[in-house]
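**Folding the chain**
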Amino acid sequence: MNADSPRPGVAPSRPQADPRLERLLAHPALWRAGAATRAPVWPSGFASLDEGLPGGGWPRSGLIEILPARFGQGELQLMLPALAALTARPEARWCVWVKPPLQPFAPALATAGMVLARVLIVRATDRGRRPAALWAFEQALGSGACDSVLAWARHAPIRQLRRLQLAAQRGNALGVLFRPRESARENSPAMLRMALEPRRGGARVTLLKSRGGTLRALDLTWEAIRREPLEAS
């Protein structure tokens, strides 16, 4: 018998964990297969959607992309149940909207259950080469003062998207970036991507990228509210 072989009836000792490896595995920028299913989530408010999302809801931190056929055609309806629950919590942080394409309609938001005192609207104006909306989005995500940050942008370089993903994880915030439907052809580091197409009384959601979730299409029905949450100003 080899001197290094374990003796019969004696379990072999496990190698000591390398602390450098442990620090690497704990880094928020590293994703491991199966980790998404263990990450904390916020329920979306749609049972059929939660069944297809990793962990059963929207990630509590990280970047997701929602790609509507046209801005103002259901993207906020999709997020309203979760946003209402987030803003109603006693320990709620800010819910920030960066450069919404249309005027938010406060009575409809209140009817949906949102606490308007927790909502902050940022009107970003581009000055120079760096898009102001994406800069404001990144700052809000990484601030540590927000539960959720929503932004609308027609163009987003992949380098900027990586910065947004890291900022969302650093600030422990849900980052929701609304981009045009054709953006689906571009690569993205977002942990979740979905296309949104309006349907009568609701929308069809197609999961395009989902770490640990199910890629499929499903139809959702909106809860009836008096007015759309976004309206032309």
Remarks:
- Residues 75-87 form the longest helix (13 residues).
- The CA atoms of residues 48 and 218 lie 8 Å apart.
- DSSP finds six helices and twelve strands in the chain.
